[in-house]
Specification:
Number of helices: 7
Strand content: 25-35%
Shape: flat
Largest sheet: 5 strands, antiparallel
Order of helices and strands: EEHEHEEHEEEEEEEEHEHEHHE
Helix content: 25-40%
Distance between the termini: 91 Å
């Protein structure tokens, strides 16, 4: 098999294509049933690369992105999860088509429902640790990146090399990472806070595995999305430092995941949309008024310009002791641009102005 007629598919591409062929019909059927049943849920493909998962290598995995169109909340489902839900969806849809008044089910049994407070992965940061092998601390605000490569906020991460009493090694620099082997080292890991998380997030927490950790370490769950204060610290003693540790620090990175729970935002979202529509309507009204005012201003300016030209024409005629003004001269002034009512009014004023020297023909 060939891709676009240019190159033969490798094993990894074949596996990815096979996953897509299997899941796309299921996803399309789920979307069709959701629309028919008015469930306000949309399913889409999410392709998760090894880098997005924080792995050094591997193949791209297919996940299902489930989004509630009323709230904007979204979740990632495994392929098998969607397959399991599909049979329940088909049963609901069949009951609906047969006119069963009880076709709908409670939320805890609804395959189209996912609780908003189900933890979701907001994004990850990769902390490169090579400087620690030289006893140089890390203190950075790192971009929090989601599976699509989009920024979802920032995470403050600090890691300090310390002595046996947990005092910071501020003035020491190690030239060769191998010189640490056999020495005693302490690392103080701090995650002070995150910032600028998505507005739909109500609470968040961080989790990571450092070096040989079997289970992930988690921070406390903190409310807020503008700047959740985790104030987290972990002390990691290494007695002694091994070659494996120096290679880990030199060649790999620490992946920190930020997870969150989403708001029950349907009512608030609808209110916000209503407010936004009202604001937009008000802006449109103000814009129309501004345009109308600008038009009136331009009309007034043009009227004054034409009136000034007529005055000039009259004054010139008076200086030349002319008793008449050619109609074509007035017509040229009046038709020099779009005729406005204000101009006609101005001409009427001039025509009605008493003058012993001039008269209009």
């Amino acid at each position: 098999m060939f891709l676009s007629g240019t190159r033969q598919l490798g094993n990894t591409d074949m596996l990815l294509l096979d996953d897509l062929v299997k899941v796309l019909p299921i996803m399309n059927e789920a979307n069709a049933m959701s629309d028919e049943l008015n469930k306000h849920v949309k399913y889409d493909i999410a392709m998760i690369s090894p880098q997005a998962r924080g792995d050094m290598e591997g193949r791209t995995e297919i996940h299902i992105l489930m989004q509630n169109k009323m709230t904007g909340n979204e979740w990632q489902l495994e392929q098998n999860d969607l397959v399991g839900r599909k049979y329940l969806m088909q049963e609901m849809y069949q009951n609906f088509m047969e006119g069963d008044d009880h076709w709908d089910v409670p939320k805890d049994k609804d395959p189209f429902w996912e609780p908003p407070d189900t933890p979701v992965l907001i994004g990850t940061v990769h902390v490169y640790l090579a400087s620690l092998a030289h006893l140089i601390y890390i203190a950075e605000d790192l971009q929090l990146i989601d599976y699509k490569g989009a920024r979802q906020g920032y995470l403050r991460v600090e890691i300090y090399p310390c002595d046996a009493r947990w005092n910071l090694l501020e003035d020491e620099v190690n030239d060769q990472p191998s010189d640490l082997v056999g020495q005693h080292l302490r690392l103080l890991v701090k995650i002070p806070h995150a910032s600028c998380l998505p507005a739909r997030i109500s609470k968040s927490f961080c989790k990571y595995k450092f070096y040989l950790d079997g289970e992930a370490t988690e921070t406390d769950e903190i409310e807020g999305s503008a700047k959740p204060e985790y104030k987290y610290e972990q002390r990691l003693p290494f007695d002694p430092v091994t070659k494996q540790l120096t290679e880990y620090l030199t060649n790999t990175f620490l992946k920190i995941e930020v997870w969150g729970r989403q708001k029950h935002t349907m009512v608030k979202l609808l209110d916000r949309e209503k407010t936004s529509m009202q604001l937009l309507t008000k802006m449109e009204e103000n814009y129309k008024k501004a345009v109308e005012m600008n038009v009136l201003k331009k009309r007034e300016e043009r009227s004054h310009m034409k009136l000034d030209k007529i005055h000039t024409l009259v004054d010139k005629a008076q200086k030349l002791h002319k008793e008449t003004i050619a109609v074509k001269d007035l017509d040229t002034i009046l038709h020099s641009s779009v005729r406005f009512k204000g101009v006609s009014d101005a001409v009427a004023l001039v025509a009605n102005r008493p003058s012993s020297a001039c008269s209009l023909q």
